[in-house]
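ZP: hey, is the MTE complex queued? I don't see it on the tracker
AM: it wasn't, my bad. submitting now with these inputs:
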Amino acid sequence: MDLKFRRNPDYQSLREEMTPERAFMDRRHILTAAGFLGAGSILGALPACSEPQQTPAPVSAGAGGHPVPGAALKAKKTAYTVADQASIEDAFTGYCNFYEFGTGKEDPARYANLMNVSPWEITIEGETDAPGKLALKDLIDYSKLEERVYRHRCVEAWSMVVPWIGVPMADVIKKLKPKSTAKFVQFETYLNKKEMPGVNRPSLRWPYVEGLRLDEAMNELPLFAVGAYGKALAKQNGAPLRTVIPWKYGFKATKSIVKIRFLAEQPATSWNKANANEYGFYSNVNPNAPHPRWSQASERVIGGKGGFNEKRNTDMFNGYEKQVAALYAGMDLKKNY
Ligand code: MTE
């Protein structure tokens, strides 16, 4: 199905609010950052559940021995779900944030094909008894994949509902043997100037890094995701490996991970380095803590029945309060934003 993007003034102003000063160096890209409303006609005509699905390619391994983007994945269904219908797949793959490929929402889908994701190695370092390099297929047990439908809430006040495929982060971390001195974990994205046109522009400092407290990472919810919508992740969504941390704003989820680093001290994170007043280390979804320049009380639902115009009230911890509130007992969540 073809996506027809067109400029959306509401989306445009949201982006301009979110993007730090330096990202405006490339005005041309910002000005072409298009909304997804172009698909609104399609969304309006077809409920998400009747969206024709492309048949996934059979499981096929690339040079790294892991499934190539778009290959069909077998995953166990789980009880982790959201009452709303999943966003259409074209919204998920067409409306992305992956600044290494440009700051426009459609840039990742346009340019990520340049990225070579096979073979793929992940370096494990820092406070661990198992340092070294692992091929992706040795880090992720593809015979134990789960499907979990989570709400995905971006700090820009939009959300999608995504059927992720992956493994619990806690299971992988146990295998990586963090030392008792490890209190945090940091994730780092692949960086290649030839394959990633966006890194030649000064939008963020590269490589993209994000982190969690180790007890957050060991919670039942976070995933190391390798797929979505029944298939191995598209490159623009962070193939071949990304994190999913559903109670936090989407920028906490690192795409195309090449390093996992265990640390005694709280790590630096990309958006915090770009603008510490606006993007904190915790970045838990919180409708009561407005972003300094816009409200977080509601969100635009992307790729659902209402196209770009459907709104819903934002839930505390993105609806995962029961599973994660205890992690922050006694903390002032407005100070620890
Ligand atoms: N990871 C990297 N490496 N680079 C990025 O620009 N953007 C983040 C996050 N992870 C980003 C990233 C943001 S702001 C969001 S909302 C999610 O990825 C978007 O994920 P999606 O495009 O798959 O929906």
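AM: back. The first helix runs from residue 9 to 18.
ZP: great, adding it to the tracker
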